[in-house]
Amino acid sequence: MQKIIKQFPVLSQYTYVNTAASGLLYDDLLDWRQEHDLDFLIGGSKMKMKSLQLISETRNTIGKFFGCKADNVALVPNFSIGLNLLLEGLGGKRNVLLLEGDFPSVNWPFESRGHATHYLKVTESLEENIYDRIKSDNINVLALSLVQWLNGVKVDLDFLGKLKKHFPDLLIIADGTQFLGTEIFNFEGSGIDVLGASSYKWLLGGYGNGFMLFADDTPGKFSCRSTGFNAADGDMEGRDKVSFAKQFEPGHLDTFNFGSLNHSLGFLSNIGMDAITGQVKRLSIKAKGELENLGLLEASVVKRKGHSSIFNIPGDKDLYAKFMEQDVVCSQRGNGIRLSFHFYNTENEIDKIIGILKRG
Fold first, then answer.
1. What is the mean pLDDT of residues 283-287?
2. Cβ 227 vs Cβ 247: under 8 Å
3. What residues contact 331, with CB distance under 8 A and at least 6 apart?
4. Cβ(152)–Cβ(340) under 8 Å?
5. What is the pTM (predicted TM-score) of this model?
6. Looking at the 3D structure of the chain, how many domains does it have?
């Protein structure tokens, strides 16, 4: 892992525990980007056919990486745009269950469209409470982040699969931005109908790229109207033949951005998602134990069996300034300070942070 860590120059200067805000650029991706732009510089429009192949390759790579048919993958600039395009096709008013404090780009699009929105607090009994509310309030849409952006609470993925079996007509829409890239995941076995994500965090894809994954029967549940020449693959006769996934791609797609994502998925695959999963889990367990011993974690985190590698601890601007003085890059979120650990972090870095907290 030490050889891989050397790919990230930032890590030689800082203790970077801020992937929940932004993933890092690494040497191999920089090299690929420079080569891409050099090809454009000297080739101009001659790049066009090559670029079309790259977009198709990216869609196939995403499908293989996350266990989803390539035809059910839509490339979007970010999760927020993808969700808004999707909800334009969700006819009628629905009973939607949302989580209090979830990422605004998950909750706001439902609220702004006049759906009957119901809210659930994120507690140690999250899954049990979701089940009860769906049953009691006639909920037909569940929308949530798989990992909560503020405190890192992670929904039990096995629970979502069981939930779908109990309520087969329930539409499950999930944001995987703070989850995908931290562990092995298979979409088709998840029970989720729609999973979207921006790729600039844990997937290390850089900015301006994301995707939506759709279950096989999802198109029949929406009436989306977005379209454009790219959606028809440049076919003047193809306006009425656009697939559901392509309705999310009405215009041209940037090969620089999506090629970056394609390259990073290859980078993660070469490391091995089993190795990444193991490292992130080790860091999560150690960080949770150390922070819990200091009494810095809320009950909804402490009492749950599984957790992500994102933690929010009490802290004001003075503690944040102290972290920054010690070259610890983190974020102020909610009423505290958010720490997030990826595979390129180490247990020694956790020890450093705990030392700063103990010194006060």
1. 98
2. yes
3. 18, 20, 21, 337, 338, 340
4. yes
5. 0.96
6. 2
